[in-house]
Design goal:
Oligomer: single chain
Largest sheet: 2 strands, antiparallel
Helix content: 10-25%
Strand content: 5-15%
Number of helices: 1
Distance between the termini: 71 Å
Order of helices and strands: HEE
Number of strands: 2
Length: about 55
């Protein structure tokens, strides 16, 4: 049986840590759809996709 002094070190490893907040739980304005459907911005690169459909 470990000493009682080491119990708090053991319990620290039992707490799940979240390294980054979940996108669904971020505060701020939440947009469900694009403002302009013909323009789509990509967060993965500096490209802007323009749809020919109106």
């Amino acid at each position: 049986k470990p000493p009682i002094e080491e119990l708090r070190y053991f319990l620290e490893f039992q707490i799940p840590r979240v390294w980054a907040p979940n996108r669904d739980h971020l505060p701020g304005p939440q947009r469900k759809g694009p403002v302009c459907p013909s323009l789509q911005f990509s967060l993965m690169g500096p490209k802007l996709y323009v749809s020919p459909e109106q």
